[in-house]
Request: fold
Amino acid sequence: MSKETKCKKVYVLADGTETRSAHPDTERLELRFAGGETLIVQLDAIDAYCLKAAGWHGASHKISDAYANTLQTGLNPYDEAVKMYERLCDGDWVMKGDGTSVMRPTLAVEAIVRALESRGETVDDDRREAIKAKVSDAGDRKIILADPMVKAALEEIKAERAAKRAEKAQDAANELGDEYTVLSQF
Reply:
């Protein structure tokens, strides 16, 4: 840690892996101060009211980061914000391609079950629990995502969720009718 750095934020995963970015499998956050002190932050210790507010703050920050450099890139800030919100709704916390993106465990279970059922296999509660236990590890989820059948099922699930969001947006637009729309400007 350089002399200019007051504090280093380190996210520690359940398996002890340390990373510089938040991850759904984070067990704790360690704030390592230049003076040698470490503050360990665990979500289950935070009051529920404050935790919900922190969630809103985090969502705001994550979405804001998505459009922060649009002035330099020429991308549309609104479009970038919508893309990030949709990613969050799909369970994609970390940008694909940065080496840390892993689907969340519940989505992995759903994709595996769908892939198995597409092969005609039955998935009872016991098998579902075994799948859930297997995908609790982020490394295993990365391997599982590489399977073509699981990837296909995952993409189907994401497409279905996107279609539902599009339908909700269309319903909201239909409720407004022509009374409120920016389209009259074009």
